[in-house]
Amino acid sequence: MHRTALDSRASAFAVQRLRDQLGRPVYPAHRLDRATSGVLLFALEPGVHARLAAAFEAGEVEKRYLAIVRGWPAPALTIDHALARLDEGGPGRDAGAPRPSRTVLRRLATAELAVQVDRYPTSRYALVELRPLSGRRHQLRRHLKHIDHPIIGDTTYGQGRHNRLFRARFGSGRLLLHAQSLRLRHPLTGEWLSIVATPPPDFAAVAAALGFAPDAAGAPA
Description:
Layout: H1 14-22, E1 27-28, E2 37-38, E3 42-43, H2 46-57, E4 62-70, E5 76-80, E6 102-113, E7 123-132, H3 139-146, H4 160-170, E8 177-185, E9 192-196, H5 201-209
Parallel strand pairs: 2-8
Antiparallel strand pairs: 1-3, 4-7, 4-8, 5-6, 6-7, 8-9
């Protein structure tokens, strides 16, 4: 999103790129992890930005993500697992008591590869829709690790054996997490807005290689 001590090697920043394109200041209303693709929301005026920030803080913005995960989670479940605040020093450095955190998961499709990665003779994967009901840092990645269905390509909370398989078999070295949509009321008019970003080619290619139907990762239900 912007320059940060968390990744001193980064050279491309969404805020600066958009400022250059528009020739005016922009104000990010939320942020995504650098490795996550999908919808970003910016305001052009400080007052609008304040209203958007308040809406995110109050849980009035519906966020939906797509992810490809290890294993087959239940068809539908709510992950209710408190998460400690992460220190700016990096993932894994807690900086406070755990806070309530909830994520709703819906399984969209499953695949099974005839490849032994761990103790099982085959390896199972799933395409899931994730809807965070709170806004903790790395919430989706940490919640999926908590239920033992980590997101593929996650080098911090995932499993290296499965990440290496996807690099070798599909040429995928990215975190397979995509911010699919935001649904919120316009901060000035009150009109409902639905902003959707289709999965980028590298995400879609892995989904297709696993045999997931083209519409499985389509518009949110």
